[in-house]
Amino acid sequence: MSNSNAFVPVPENEPILTYAPGSSERKKVLATYKKMYATSIDVPMFIGGKEVSTGNLASMRPPHEHQHTLGTYHLASKTDVNEAIKSALAAKKKWSAMPWEARASIFLKAADLIAGPYRAKINAATMLAQSKTIHQAEIDAACELIDFLRFNVAYMQEIYQNQPVSGPGMWNRLQYRPLEGFVYAISPFNFTAIAGNLCASAAMMGNVIIWKPSDHQIFSAQVVMDVFREAGVPDGVINMIMGDPEMITDEILASPDFAGVHYTGSTFVFKNIWKKIGNQIHQYKSYPRIVGETGGKDFIVAHPSAIAQQVATGIVRGAFEFQGQKCSAASRVYLPASIADAVLDGVAQQVATIKMGSPENFENFMTAVIHRAAFERLQNTIEKVKKDNEAEIIIGGECDDSVGYFVSPTVVRTTDPKYFTMTTELFGPLVTVYVYDDNKWHETLEMVDQTSEYALTGAVFSQDRYALQEAFDALENSAGNFYFNDKPTGAVVGQQPFGGGRGSGTNDKAGSMFNLLRWVSPRLIKETFVPPTNYHYPFLEKE
Ligand code: NAD
């Protein structure tokens, strides 16, 4: 029986290991990488505590070596999807009745498992599945996922502590009920941490989950599932199914018990899911919660007072780390004519030193893009830019898919601020630069605000405080995560809650209390200690 007010450990960001030459973590992760590379595995679905194999298989391949097979995974049929719904609903009563401290313990244990015995495995799996360098894997699969779990447990406690005041003679309480029904988590390929968090954040609030990872992240998703199982997530609470996203989604959205979707991925897919939910609204028992963090066309805008080398570094790190496949990656840049050459020279000098290849070679800063469709999208874009008059490739532009899907860090310069590479999310190592007249700062800010349907991240570089303040006001709705004199990527849980508005999502701020609030439906309980025995109020008495 729980009869005390427990306090969860105060969360702190997980320290990022360096993987410097000679370090023990470097040896361990490389050995794990080699072992996983050489072993072929078969990933089943995980439904109601059981591993489910259908025999309908797809293969997993590292993007940097697309002829190599890491193994296979099993694709769901409609029956499997409905089995997952049944299993989730069957687990619901016991899970939501479990004391919150017990739920917290499970996810704190998951964090410690990742920080310790699973660290090398989850990082190596992310290096292989998503072609991340060890640094990119470490800040995602290890540190960010650990932070999500530890900070969210603390936010959960903070939510539960939030209670109304009570007038004389009564006690008002809020109970934070999980949603009625089940939550559907759909995750993207690019962050192992996001995949884990889409499930764990809603589950820790007492919800049951059906999770559909991206086909291009299954190899690391299975490690996340192993962690959940070892941490003690009970059977049926988080169910992992893979397969045709449209079929799975249609089956799930057809259930009257569908209570919410926790989505991260592209804007187009999210809008279609929203439309499908809207079209079926009459069949649901409750109004489903719709939480989606989606695409971006993230900007860097430099004021004439900016320091060229700082802007150049912001562009290189912001646009090219993880091959530009971060929703927050800088993909459109506005430079004043007075410093444009200095900035672009700085970018060219830094890019010239970038090595690209397999993440197994730790000297590589960049690796491959995720799959053939991404490679072709980028290659076609580069071909078009080469033909168009209003733009030119000034750095990079090489594509090579003979071994893996490699696209070199590419800078496009355009004379048209609405050129398609300034407005379309391309999700790769390609950034477009527009050079403006120094005396058009004000107009440029307006242009930054009005160029794209997205509003995820953005950065302003300036040494002039008035200019920063003007940008702060002019770009109020242009980005949900807004940076002064920094790159627009690299949000840290607990420090920079993440999410954007407009076409970039519902801005429920992953890694914050705001997100967790979407997974509860508060019930107010008012208790009157000595209830009245007559309806009469004093004003009704005769004078
Ligand atoms: P994606 O849209 O291709 O896929 C996302 C998920 O949706 C996957 O699980 C996929 O299988 C599923 N899906 C695809 N088609 C579907 C359909 N018709 N019905 C239902 N589900 C479907 O995105 P991706 O390539 O995996 O990830 C990149 C995208 O994610 C980019 O647009 C990026 O900006 C966005 N993203 C946003 C954030 C954020 O926090 N805003 C974070 C990471 C990624």
Task: Give a quick summary of the entry.
The protein is α/β, with parallel strands linked by helices and 543 residues long. It has 16 helices and 23 strands.
Key descriptive features of the protein:
543 residues; alpha/beta; Aldehyde Dehydrogenase, Chain A, domain 1; Aldehyde Dehydrogenase, Chain A, domain 2; 2 domains; seven-stranded mixed sheet; five-stranded parallel sheet; 39% helix; binds nicotinamide-adenine-dinucleotide
Q: How are the secondary structure elements laid out?
A:
Layout: H1 24-38, E1 41-43, E2 45-47, E3 50-52, E4 57-60, E5 71-74, H2 78-97, H3 100-115, H4 119-130, H5 134-161, E6 170-178, E7 182-186, H6 192-204, E8 208-212, H7 218-231, E9 238-240, H8 245-253, E10 258-264, H9 267-279, E11 289-293, E12 298-302, H10 308-320, E13 330-336, H11 337-352, H12 372-387, E14 391-395, E15 399-400, E16 406-407, E17 410-414, H13 420-423, E18 430-436, H14 441-450, E19 454-455, E20 457-461, H15 465-474, E21 481-484, E22 501-502, H16 513-517, E23 520-528
Parallel strand pairs: 1-5, 7-8, 7-10, 8-9, 10-11, 12-13, 12-20, 13-18, 17-18, 20-21
Antiparallel strand pairs: 2-3, 4-5, 6-23, 14-17, 15-16, 19-22
This protein binds nicotinamide-adenine-dinucleotide.
